[in-house]
């Protein structure tokens, strides 16, 4: 069984499905509300566990009902959460507006995540060192992101950075990243480009690859993905979704499947294809956790392509 270490966020997702998103100062009625667990780190950890990996998670939650529900969820999903920090601030909350098209808008109050620091990451070193791959996302303080990537490099563990939400990275962090996985919106932010920069997806992916010295995977929604590594760029065609119900968890599902596939020793292009299949499955189901595929579900979808 492959081992995956995850350093990232947990938060309660408070989702409202609306006929349309409101304009400034406007109230839109007719919504349907559903609360549930979220946070990129937790979603990715659960996604990897469902695909058969042994997963250890580092995040921070509050001493509140949301935090207790999170710990119960991780026990149920088989995610090791021994090092999760109980912070003084409340558990992160994300407010998610979902339109009928499946597009979403998200606002986050970080709360407990602001207390996740380098010392907490250092206490997670043994789990990082024992892992086949380390997955880091950016809903946590930059100090924790940096500490995690440094611990991964020190341990010789493959590092995968899901740079969401995107912000420019310090120069000294780029060489610590083996694989970076932005989407089309995040890539220009990482590169410090302004709107109207004029670069196509291929050039964005190659520039990101050059900065890491490793590889870059640019996710493109319904257009699939681009993989840049070792001077070559490969287009990964999309796996068609039966329908688009909710895109909220697609990126986390993609990241989890990519990480597990790489941990299993698959080539990056094959891993990105498998990850695309996982993401396509996820958009067909409402809610993030219910939509994360199991290994059997993923294998069945891959089997339909043959």
TrEMBL record:
Activated by a monovalent cation that binds near, but not in, the active site. The most likely occupant of the site in vivo is potassium. Ion binding induces a conformational change that may alter substrate affinity. Gene3D superfamilies: 3.40.1190.20. InterPro entries: Carboh/pur_kinase_PfkB_CS, PfkB_dom, Ribo/fructo_kinase, Ribokinase, Ribokinase-like. SUPFAM superfamilies: Ribokinase-like (SSF53613). Substrate binds at residues 39-43, 139, 252. Its EC number is 2.7.1.15. Its cofactor is Mg(2+). GO terms for molecular function: ribokinase activity. Requires a divalent cation, most likely magnesium in vivo, as an electrophilic catalyst to aid phosphoryl group transfer. It is the chelate of the metal and the nucleotide that is the actual substrate. Keywords: ATP-binding, Carbohydrate metabolism, Cytoplasm, Kinase, Magnesium, Metal-binding, Nucleotide-binding, Potassium, Transferase. K(+) binds at residues 246, 248, 282, 285, 287. Residues 4-294 form the Carbohydrate kinase PfkB domain. It holds the Pfam family PfkB. It is found in: Cytoplasm. Pathway: Carbohydrate metabolism; D-ribose degradation; D-ribose 5-phosphate from beta-D-ribopyranose: step 2/2. Homodimer. Belongs to the carbohydrate kinase pfkB family. Belongs to the carbohydrate kinase PfkB family. Ribokinase subfamily. This is Ribokinase. It comes from Streptomyces pratens.
């Amino acid at each position: 069984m492959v081992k995956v270490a995850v350093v990232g966020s947990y938060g309660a997702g408070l989702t409202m499905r609306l006929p349309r998103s409101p304009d400034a100062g406007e109230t839109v009625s007719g919504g349907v509300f559903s609360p549930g667990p979220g946070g990129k780190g937790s979603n990715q950890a659960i996604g990897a566990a469902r695909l058969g990996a042994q997963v250890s998670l580092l995040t921070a939650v509050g001493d509140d009902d949301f935090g207790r529900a999170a710990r119960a969820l991780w026990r149920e999903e088989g995610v090791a959460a021994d090092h999760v920090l109980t912070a003084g601030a409340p558990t992160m909350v994300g407010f998610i507006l979902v339109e009928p098209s499946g597009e979403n808008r998200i606002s986050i109050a970080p709360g407990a995540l602001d207390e996740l620091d380098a010392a907490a990451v250092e206490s997670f070193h043994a789990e990082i060192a024992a892992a086949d791959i380390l997955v880091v996302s950016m809903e946590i303080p930059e100090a924790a992101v940096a500490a995690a990537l440094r611990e991964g490099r020190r341990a010789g563990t493959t590092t995968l950075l899901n740079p969401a939400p995107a912000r420019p990275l310090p120069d000294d962090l780029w060489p610590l990243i083996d694989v970076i996985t932005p989407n089309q919106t995040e890539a220009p932010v990482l590169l410090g480009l302004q709107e109207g920069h004029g670069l196509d997806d291929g050039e964005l992916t190659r520039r990101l690859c050059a900065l890491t010295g490793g590889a870059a995977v640019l996710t493109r929604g319904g257009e699939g993905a681009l993989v840049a590594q070792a001077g070559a760029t490969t287009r990964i065609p999309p796996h068609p979704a039966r329908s688009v119900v909710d895109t909220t968890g697609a990126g986390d599902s993609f990241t989890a499947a990519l990480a597990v596939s790489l941990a299993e020793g698959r080539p990056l292009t094959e891993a990105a294809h498998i990850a695309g299949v996982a993401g396509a499955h996820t958009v067909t189901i409402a809610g993030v956790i219910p939509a994360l595929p199991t290994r059997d579900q993923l294998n069945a979808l891959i089997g339909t392509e043959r």
